[in-house]
Amino acid sequence: MSNLTEKEVMYDKFFELQKSVHLKNQKKIRVGLKLNILLPLIFLVICFLSNRSKLVFLVLWIVSLFGISFYLLYVEYMDFKLQEQMKEFGIIEHDDPQALIGNEVVQGIDDIKNARKEMVQDIKEIKMEIRSEIEKEKQEIAREREEIRKELKKDIQTVGDKLKK
Predict the structure, then answer these.
(1) Would you tell me how many other CB atoms lie within 10 Å of the CB of residue 79?
(2) Minimal CA–CA distance to 85: which of 74, 97, 76?
(3) Would you call 51 helix, strand, or coil by DSSP?
(4) Whole-model pTM?
(5) DSSP secondary-structure letter at 99?
(6) 150 and 160 housed in the same domain
(7) The domain containing residue 43 runs over which residues?
(8) Distances, alpha carbon 24 to alpha carbons 16, 87, 125, 154, in Å
(9) Which residues, at least 6 apart from 72, have a Cβ–Cβ distance to it below 8 Å?
(10) Number of domains in the chain
């Protein structure tokens, strides 16, 4: 009986350890994403503020982007392997491993697509309004031009009649 409880305790400890590692990986991803933005910006600012060779800072900028990207890939891969182990041991039931950053990115992309569709619809509506206003203006201009033409004809006839007299 104590053997069973020892296994349960070991199982619980293993599960808690795996959970804590997953949470740490999520924090590492957040830090990595922040570094992926800040470190290249720092190199870029230093590049423009210093009078030294811009090529050195450009190379440092590119290397930092690659390094941080590889770090993020490594953390994501290790978390993926961890989830596979947990699935193999029967700790988790779902077939698809949970991505550390995938859900937010997919949701963000969907939000961007929806916003884009709304903007395109708004632009189409504004375009139709502008076209109708342009048509109204064209009709107004054509009507005014016709009135001016009629007035000019009357004036010409009046001048012609006065010249005949």
Answers:
(1) 21
(2) 97
(3) coil
(4) 0.47
(5) P
(6) yes
(7) 1-100
(8) 12, 19, 49, 90
(9) 29, 32, 33, 36
(10) 2
